What we know:
The structure holds 5 protein chains of 5 kinds.
Chain B: E1 2-13, E2 16-27, E3 31-36, H1 42-50, E4 57-62, E5 65-66, H2 72-77, E6 80-83, H3 95-102, H4 109-122, H5 124-128, H6 139-152, E7 157-161, H7 169-184, E8 188-192, H8 196-202, E9 205-210, E10 213-219, H9 220-225, H10 227-233
Parallel strand pairs in B: 3-8, 3-9, 6-7, 7-8
Antiparallel strand pairs in B: 1-2, 1-4, 4-5, 9-10
Helix pairs in contact in B: 3-6, 4-6
Chain D: H1 3-34, H2 41-62, H3 67-94, H4 102-123, E1 131-132, E2 141-143, E3 148-150, H5 151-173, H6 175-185, H7 187-192, H8 197-223, E4 225-226, H9 230-245, H10 250-270, H11 278-292
Antiparallel strand pairs in D: 1-4, 2-3
Chain E: E1 4-15, E2 18-29, E3 33-37, H1 44-51, E4 59-64, E5 67-68, H2 74-80, E6 82-84, H3 97-103, H4 113-117, H5 120-141, H6 158-170, E7 176-180, H7 188-204, E8 209-213, H8 217-223, E9 226-231, E10 234-239, H9 241-246, H10 248-255
Parallel strand pairs in E: 3-8, 3-9, 6-7, 7-8
Antiparallel strand pairs in E: 1-2, 1-4, 4-5, 9-10
One adenosine-5'-triphosphate sits between chains E (15, 18, 20, 38, 40-46, 87) and B (136-141).
Amino acid sequence: KDTVHIGFIGPLTGGVSSIGLGGRNSADLAVKLRNADPNAKYTYEIEALDDECKPNVGVQVATKLAANRKVVGAIAHYCSAVAMGTVDVYHKFGLPMTVWGAVLPDITYGNEYGEITRVNGTMINQNETAAKFMLEQGYKTWAVIHDTTDYGKGHNTYFTKYLEEGGGKILGAFGVTSDQQDFTAELTQIKQLNPDVVYFAGLTPLGVRVRQQMDKLGIKAVFQGVSGIKSDAYFEGLGGELAEGSVTFLEGAPAEKLPGGAFFLSEYEKAGYDSAPEAYGPFAFAATSLLMDAIEEVGPDRKKIVAYMATVKDHESITGPITFDDHGQNTVALITPYVAQSGQWVVWEDSEYASGARKLPGKQ
Amino acid sequence: MARIEIRGLRSAYDKADVLHDISLTVEEGRITCLLGSNGAGKSTLIRGILGLTQPHSGQILLDGEDITRLPTHKIISRGIAAIPEGRKMFPKLTVTENLRLGAYQVGDERTIRARMDSVFEAFPRLAERRDQLAGTMSGGEQAMVSIGRGLMGAPKILLIDEPSLGLSPLYVKENFRIIEGIRDQGITVFLVEQNVRQTLAIADYGYVLSGGKLVGEGTAEALQNDSAVHAAYFG
Amino acid sequence: MTDIAIDTPSRPKGWLPGVLTILFVAVYSWALLIAEEDWEVMGLIALAAAVVVLGLFTGLGNKVKASWSAHEKPLNLGALIGVLAVIFTLSDQHFPLLMLTTTLLYFLASLGLNIQFGYTGMVNFAGAAFFGAGAYTAAVFGNVEWFPPLLTLVAGGLVAMALGLLLVYPIVRTTGHYAAVVTIAFGVLFKTFLEVNEILGGPQGLMVNSMRLPGWDFNNSPTLFGMEASFYFNYAVFAAILVAVIFTFVRRMERSWLGLHMDAVRLDETAAACFGISIHRTKILAFLSGNLILGIAGALYGMMISFIAPTSFTFSDSLLMVSIVLLGGMGSPWGGAIAAAIVVLLPEKLQILQEYRFLLFAVLVMLVLLFRPDGLLPRQIRNYFPGARNGQ
Amino acid sequence: MDIGLLAQYLANGIMLGTMYALVAVGFTLFFGVLDVIKFSHGDVLMLGTFAGFTVWLGLEAAGISNPWVQLVLILIASMAFTAAAGAAIAKYLVLPLKKAPPLNTLLITLMLGTAIREAVRLFYPNGSNPKAFPSLLPDASVDLGGFLLRADSVILVVAGLGLITGLNLMLNRTRLGLAIRAVAQDEETARTMGINYMVVVLATFGIGSGVAAFAGIMNGLYYNEINFGMGLLLGLIGFSAAIVGGLGNLYGAILGGFIFAGLQVVGSALLPFASAYKDVFAFAVVIAIMAWKPTGLIPERTSDRV
Amino acid sequence: MTNSLLEFRNLTKRFGGVTALDDFSMHLNRGEILGLIGPNGSGKTTSFNLLTGIYPASGGSIFFDGEDITNKSPRKVYEAGVVRTFQRSRLCLPLSIYDNIMIGDTSRLKTGICANLLGRKAFRKQYEETFEKARSLVATFSGNLADRMMEPVGALPMIERRRIEICRALISEPRLLLLDEPSAGMTHDETDQLMTDILDVRARGEGLSIIIVEHEMGVIERITDRCVVLSYGRKIAEGSYAEVAADAEVQNAYLGVD
Ligand SMILES: Nc1ncnc2c1ncn2[C@@H]1O[C@H](COP(=O)(O)OP(=O)(O)OP(=O)(O)O)[C@@H](O)[C@H]1O
Ligand SMILES: Nc1ncnc2c1ncn2[C@@H]1O[C@H](COP(=O)(O)OP(=O)(O)OP(=O)(O)O)[C@@H](O)[C@H]1O
Ligand SMILES: [Mg+2]
Ligand SMILES: [Mg+2]
């Protein structure tokens, strides 16, 4: 068997490294499983690189991968600003790249590059569903805390848009830096505004702090997060009690509910990685598998893979079927609401909240 | 009786040899002086005794015990005190605090007070300025602080390196009187001075250092009459 | 004619050690840049360590130093040729060229910082901010049709300088740690401002147009001897020449009365003032010219990397730049070159260690500092015209 | 704005200010004794907090669950651990570089900070994720008209300020304090006075680092959340606070800490819909203060003379 | 044009509660060597500091060559032709001897940016000129240092540093030289030699005036034309050395009666 090289890029060091490591492990797992498969035509080797969640470093490592002729495809980026910076590089070098975590719409929609595809949804899809869902629950007023990175700001923009279209009201929005410790000043004001829901757009570490300090100030509103807090770390940081009743949304079907997903989780467990797959691990796994499927199909040739990607339709994956639109965006925009129940994220429909056994704050 | 005995001391900074094979003794209850031109290595010798510069070879004995490689604070605790060259102050501490540090190894507050009073008696200037930061004192005032601080430790042996540098003639005289007084209390003094005439007037015994080598020694009178010393220092 | 040259050996010191050093460094960097396999990288790092130890203990290092100071001009030129030679041999290798150019530009930035705190003693913890200011300027002006890109580079420098002007008042008044806080505050402020503010792309950043010289877009790949070279080749050559030019100027500044004034201000402001040196003029000159260089370096970097965002110019990036200066040895431009290579290339070459690479990098730098507390190449005493007879 | 809200802001500010001040104190001490910037301070703080957290896990596992016992043990363990770490840093990293340019100390401690941070992230079980720090203080609170005064905040503030005051007394009234200040100014002369130089330096670094651990635990108790990156920003702010307050004495650290906290609170209170600008605002004010008072608000008495 | 080059009029300086100079008036004639003596802490250094603009005066004024230079910046004072040495040596230790001396000559060095960065030919010319000048000045004071112009000052013994400091002050051919205890730490011979050298340099140029602060009475006696005695910031005597030395108050406060 020939050996085929593929690349993985994500934040392996720094503040969001847990997600990056989860993604890398998942991609690695996909490769391992494939190599163990006797039917596979090639042996795969993965080269994982660290973009530190910084665009300039991202461009560097993307160039490294793309310039390496041995590498035929890549699964890359969790941080949107980095992906925005690197798409040109992939295009220039003709390297097919599938995004596994970054959610900014412009990454696929801001260009016409055939090389760029994305398996996870964008923040547009996520927030559209989120706004609709929460309005359906009967909430009227929101206060927003978002971090000032592209992630938080982007989420805020789309959420506000859809919420206001749906008739919800935003009482106040607060931008915070992604390394901020203390939110009491913001939360004191929010307490004054007395919203039904606090919408938080940012990642787990920050979300844990905000949720924690809400409690300290006696704010009883529902805590609604974005995909960034859908992690086990959320519970580790908060303990089950405080986390209880937080809501969040994640693109894709719940892994544990799909046959492939359950398989993934158990295999991940078996492989003994020392960090969890986190929310986007399944996407990294799916993207890697997709890339390998493409290679199996058309051979290790960049151009052919790019062409193949344009035709992907209802491709089976552990996150549900993948169909790329003409921008390479996965259109099966399945968004799943989750609620924190007894120390874990539970799909809304399956939760006691949906059944009425438990109640979100502010509901009779 | 010899309090300090130095045997075959060699010292160097980086690569440059400064002291070559120095042997001398400082006798109990006397003023022993060390004369020598600039850069002869006098201060280096003092620093060697204090353990601030590690010698290459040789031995320093204090009351017959080897102290060559002891850390400085241990040497001080054996009853040595020093008035270092160049009025080394703690510039951001007040005069009182500087004096207190002279008695750092003394715990008793009353003793410290009493000693401080006697220092203030010797240098009324310092009493006037007890809360001034030492760093803002005039050059000569700083010299007074330095001397006073040396006295605070009530040592058995006092090493003094050019104490009258920058002092007015009046205080230079006063200073020598004080040193004599120290000796008369039974304290052993090892004195480095530039002011040869006045030094030899109060010293009991002296050594002459030149280019890192001992070139002469003798009683103060003998040195005073020594033509070589005379030629070199009296001009 | 006087009899100065008593203890100067009449026989000129040989140029050979210098030339050999250039050759070695060139070959070494070529090898390091293209090394990919783990064992290659590790071997090369070990080799470097061995050479350094050898150089220190056998006096080889001193020979090189002596040779260099005796023939500085030709050897400096030789070094430039060496760099260009490496660039040519790598002409179709995108990634090595990118890394090489990045190193060159960080080196350039360290030259700016060197003027500020190596010579004048004004710490600047906002290096990345001024570097970023240059890059953002390039992004803005690069999109203006009629604006000549070469001028964009200059504009980057000028804008960084102008931003420095904002700080001049507090900077000139404060010293030491106090001045450090002014720049730290500015660095944090700069990044946060870019992030919360949408005018310059907000947190998502901005595209930067490529560098263009009349008739030549740097994004095109040049053809060399019938082979298509990487488009980074353009940037590498341009950066090498830019570095050479600015290096010359920084050297000249050091070896002029201006440099002397800077040293005097750093070492003793009071004495300097008593001898008619204007403390303010000297400090302002140093701060602004340092920022000018930082800005120029940043502008070219932005154009090369073609996409910038606030997260690339954070406080920790500033610290990285400060590290280059300190690791190299304060006020020592060549030290900065070596340190830039270490700081830029080492983390990259350690990619094989993945998440452990920063840990290892930090430990390596600590070890280097413990063994070379003054930096890798401590600054030499000023010699206005090296090799000139008066100088010795 | 009603009184309750105002009081809430005030309480927040005081809490935050105390925390910053505790970090700043460490910086002031290190400047004081060796005139160095120890950039790893924030990360040492984080290390201390994680040590405390680990002890807590151990106590839980051992079945010791009285919160006061836990608290005391955690504090003792983490402060001792951090003090030892601080002394080790002084001995092996700071002192060897004493003769080098002072900024090189900054670089080596900076790198140490990175190393500590990365090591915790990589080697502490699940270290890259935030941890839930237990709340061990009584969670009673009084509602004073829309303003929640919490017992734990009061305890923390009092303890923190008490610690700083105690340190200041130590520094200005005791022999050790005198020795610390003497060592700072002239190592050699200090030794000539019979001061055990090494012991004093190590003690100072130990104390400063121990205080950092205290601040870290306080941070943990208050926010009930700790993470490997927590020291980074705290260190930066602590450093700035120490300088803005002035290195004259430890009260400068308190002043600086409170100014910083005040700026942040005021920033987000006055700029409600642009609260993202509060850091821009805070740091701009810092620059302005430095322009106005170039040696900090409580300057050292200068001893320079010509 | 009067004969007085420098004049202090009722100069006063207070540091908090300390009055370092108290209504101090004196003058210095052109070409004169004036000894400024007095007990420790009597305000001698302080008067230098006020004159050179390091501290602002609390009261009174200073006239130099008929011009009021009270509270002018150190730079202005230097440009007027006043230079000094410091009681505690203040050289830039890592810099070479030549560099240190050149710091004293800033008024004549071309410090324009273009001149320094672009006009290297002209710069070299100036460099070579000044090098020769500095070298010969150093040679006057210390023959063996003249061949070590490019060595760092930090490696030199104290006494050599003092000499370099005086060279730094003299290189700009000033009109008034302020010496603050130049002989401290030197032996008799060395002090004597230093004074001879200073007088030598003075004799070469025209009319250098000197104020010298010194506790070594031999020096004062030998070289000064006139002395002013300070005590507690006030002038207590003035006149030739023989006159002031005979003054009872001076003996009491300063010289000490045997
Ligand atoms: N820290 C040092 N590093 C290198 N050389 C030194 C150092 N200190 C002193 N020296 C050199 O050692 C020699 C002896 O110096 P030392 O200070 O002992 O002389 P000294 O006799 O005390 O002179 P002085 O009368 O000037 O005080 C001198 O040549 C001096 O330059
Ligand atoms: N910056 C300052 N702050 C406070 N007091 C000062 C300051 N500078 C000088 N003084 C005080 O003013 C007085 C005069 O000091 P000055 O240095 O002028 O004395 P001096 O005549 O030069 O004495 P010496 O011969 O000892 O050098 C001294 O008592 C000194 O303590
Ligand atoms: Mg000496
Ligand atoms: Mg004086």
